[in-house]
Amino acid sequence: MFTGIVTEVGTVKKAESFQGGREFHIECSFAGQTRVDESISVNGACMTVTGQNDKTFSFQSVEETLRKTTFGDLREGDPVNLERSLRADQAIEGHFVQGHVDTVGTIENITADGADRLITVGYPAEYEPYVVGRGSIAVDGVSMTIAKDSPEKFTIAIIPYTWENTIFESRKVGGRVNLEFDIFGKYVVKYMSKLKADS
Questions:
Q1: Which residues contact 91 (CB under 8 A, 6 or more apart)?
Q2: Which of 33, 42, 147, 193 is deepest in the core (most CB within 10 A)?
Q3: Which range has the worst mean pLDDT, 7-16, 21-30, 81-90?
Q4: Per-residue pLDDT tens for 148-194?
Q5: Angle at Cα 24 formed by Cα 145 and Cα 6, nearest 5°?
């Protein structure tokens, strides 16, 4: 479990293929503190540490993960959002994020709004019931509030600090982002759908 508050922006130092997936080595300041089997959110996807040293930690992505996330796009030198898993004594400052990416969205527009940046993201129509104005969503692992929702797209407003301390600063129009919709919203939609089916 995570909160969507990025701890650090790491760097992909190595990305290599193996039969059925890819292995990534991520450089970050806390690599030496990690342990094998630890869960770390990488661009919003919960990944298991398979190896580590003082400078990097590694994880493996199988074909299913590569299909459902943007990990197939990652190349050596790319920045990635990182968050270590939530501790029991830690404040929940974003929202509950499972690290289970629901789908991949596409950046349709990036505009400046004063000091803020507005990013509009398109997503598959089947997920529209989970998008609510002023509701929460995780975009590349960052807890964001939906500023505006339209059919098959939503807009988020990013303050300068978040822009500069996540990978949003490197994002371009046409780029793909990992999306995880609010878990509580998913439960409500499923419950209401069941009520409707039973009535």
A1: none
A2: 42
A3: 81-90
A4: 999 999 999 999 999 999 999 999 999 999 999 999 989 888 888 88
A5: 25
Contacts of residue 15, defined as CB under 8 A and 6 or more positions apart, other chains included, come to: 22, 23, 24, 25, 74, 75, 76
Which residues contact residue 120 at a Cβ distance below 8 angstroms, ignoring those fewer than 6 apart? Answer: 107, 108, 109, 110, 153, 154, 155
In angstroms, the CA 49 to CA 24 distance is: 10
Residue 149 phi, psi dihedral angles, 5° rounding: -120, 140
C-alpha span between 107 and 171 (Å, rounded): 8
pLDDT at 116 (0 to 100): 95
Element (H, E) at 18: strand 8-18
Give the torsion sign (CA, 110, 113, 117, 123): negative
